[in-house]
Amino acid sequence: MMYGWLWRHLPGPTVVRVLILLALAAAVLVACFAWVYPAIAPHMPFNETTVGE
Amino acid sequence: MTAVEPAEPAARRRSRASRVVYGVIGVIGEILITLGLLLFGFLVWQLWWTDVQGNRAQAEIVREVVREAPPTVAPSPGSTKPAEVVAKPRHDDPPVLKDQKHATTFATMQVPRWDGEPERPISEGTDRATVLDVLGVGHYEGTAMPGDIGNFAVAGHRTTYAKPFNRILELKKGDPVVVRTTTLDGSEGTDTWYVYRVVSTQVVPPTDVDVIAPVPNEPYAKPTKRMMTMTTCHPMYSARERFIVHLELDYWAPVSSGTPAELVSNAG
Question: Is B130 exposed, middle or buried (0-12, 13-18, 19+ CB in 10 A)?
Answer without folding.
Answer: middle
